[in-house]
């Protein structure tokens, strides 16, 4: 099921990218209703549209039929949030969100792998934590930029989905306070942009909490760009860290993100667990 859903999302993104004639800074699509191509729970789809409709980064939306699928196109601008997000010395990546439907699929895969809590690290506007919440996870969102955390709180209040926004430096956060038992950590940072430092810090913190050593999953956002990775393409650029910390790759999916909208390849997400 997941393979087909992922491939259909990638295919509809490619067709949308070719047909889109607007000039918005960011743009993405969400299917209007459950279909054979997108067998997503109706209430979950409604929640995705609710998030987009109440998120001020999107200033326009309209209906369109793409690849035989009725969708809503959301257009937005993240320039102000992007500028604020780069002012922090320990920030590993400027605010560039994954697609909301991609975030849902990512959380859905983690749910299928049996995790119970979702930690969204470097969470931006909180969309992965939000998707975790609507899928029944106990979600926690960690973001260093106060402006983005205020955006998360606004969305949380207006959608009535509490995904627990926290304004903290993920490098300094005390994760034991969350009472985690079987968590999955989503790491918001590419390896060549400081994400390896962030991931190493979190892995060390997990290792210091005895009950988490064998029950925790970590999901890395990677890239297929040889230019960015200097030739190290294995596991989206995370292979060295994965090997050094004895992690096991259990799933890899490539999904649309804002930064790959005009590219032929999408963003790989590498699901790992402690071996």
Description of the molecule:
By secondary structure, the chain is α/β, with parallel strands linked by helices. It has one domain (2-274): Rossmann fold (3-Layer(aba) Sandwich). It is 35% helix and 23% strand. It is built from 9 helices and 10 strands. It has helices at residues 2-19, 42-53, 79-85, 100-112, 127-134, 146-159, 195-207, 226-229, 239-244; strands at residues 26-31, 58-66, 69-76, 117-121, 138-143, 165-167, 183-187, 217-221, 247-255, 267-274. A 7-stranded mixed β-sheet has the order 6-5-4-7-8-10-9, with helices on both faces. Helix 1 (2-19) packs antiparallel against helix 4 (100-112), helix 2 (42-53) packs antiparallel against helix 5 (127-134) and helix 4 packs across helix 5. 43% of the residues are buried. The mean pLDDT is 90.
Topology, element by element:
Layout: H1 2-19, E1 26-31, H2 42-53, E2 58-66, E3 69-76, H3 79-85, H4 100-112, E4 117-121, H5 127-134, E5 138-143, H6 146-159, E6 165-167, E7 183-187, H7 195-207, E8 217-221, H8 226-229, H9 239-244, E9 247-255, E10 267-274
Parallel strand pairs: 4-5, 4-7, 5-6, 7-8
Antiparallel strand pairs: 1-3, 2-3, 8-10, 9-10
